[in-house]
Amino acid sequence: MKTFKIAVIPGDGIGPEVISEGIKILNKIAEVDGTFQFEFTEFPWGCEYYTKHGIMMDDDGMDKLKKFDAVYLGAVGYPGVPDYISLWDLLLKIRKGFDQYVNIRPIRLLEAAPCPLKDIDCEDVNMLFIRENSEGEYAGAGDWLFKGKENEVVLQNGVFSRKGTERIIRYAFEVARKEGKTLTSISKANALNYSMVFWDQVFEEISKEYPDVKTASYLVDAAAMLMIKDPKRFEVVVTSNLFGDILTDLGAAIAGGIGLAAGANINPERQYPSMFEPIHGSAPDIAGKNIANPLAAIWSASQILDFLGYEKYGKMVLDSVEQLLIEGQVLTPDMNGVSSTSEVGDRLTSIMTALFESKNLVF
């Protein structure tokens, strides 16, 4: 039997609660399939760990994580710990250290999911954002000069390398070609006269290698407007680190809210583990109450299945989530329900079991 080793970082707040439901789903699929299993190893890192030990993760944490097939992350954030510490000392440390230069965030409106837009059908919102995840505006380059003096100056530099820009754009073209979809590039070349002009130039260069892929290019402000007014024009989207971060949260609001938003940090060459996470925060105000929405973490679990080559199981998880939403009986309070976190996971497990039995699925 094949064993997939998954490093689990439940993190802070509601992280452990939602991640446990994702693990429940993964174990159920492995149990029914019978040809593979998951071996989960938990690490207690995060902001609460920082308050006790002064570090977000162990000094040899990256060496420990290298041994795994994937990393499954819950959430980070805790009162009293600055966000830049949690981001740079854990999340970005893993993303950059393992060269997870592709961030994948699906923005898909499932049937019965709440959508704030008028006259929108589910098929109108089905975007796949591919965000550069290793450099750009989040490269961490800059300086803080004359701190505390009247001539204080802060420099924050974006870094756009030829290698980094080419590989993310090429990855997006490959996905668009494989799925037979359009590819849209989002930049801001009219104002950022070096980095974004370069981005557009590289996009144009690589597009010549993919004449079969229909392309479009928008400024980020226009793209934000069009995501609201005409979301169906976006299929596969490629953009920079900062723009992708902002626009995918906008996409989450369109496609049911942050409780349904998942993200994958991919090292395509598989030289290092990839990391999968819901994109919501740690929500310390509801932590420990068993009312957190686990659907984003479960969607992230479906991305793990996709990454490991079990795309049909990944689709089954999403089909089950959609059926749960259509039923409308077992939902957490943020989705106008009264059910607990664990009850949502249990109901999804039941739905998947029924799908297995009705279709006699064996992959």
From TrEMBL:
Its EC number is 1.1.1.83. The keyword Signal does not apply. It comes from the Bacteria. Residues 5-348 form the Isopropylmalate dehydrogenase-like domain. It catalyses: (R)-malate + NAD(+) = pyruvate + CO2 + NADH. Pfam families: Iso_dh. Its cofactor is Mg(2+); Mn(2+). Gene3D superfamilies: Isopropylmalate Dehydrogenase. SUPFAM superfamilies: Isocitrate/Isopropylmalate dehydrogenase-like (SSF53659). Keywords: Manganese, Metal-binding, NAD, Oxidoreductase. GO terms for molecular function: D-malate dehydrogenase (decarboxylating) (NAD+) activity; magnesium ion binding; NAD binding. Belongs to the isocitrate and isopropylmalate dehydrogenases family. NCBIfam families: PRK03437.1, TTC. This is D-malate dehydrogenase (decarboxylating). It comes from Niallia endozanthoxylica.
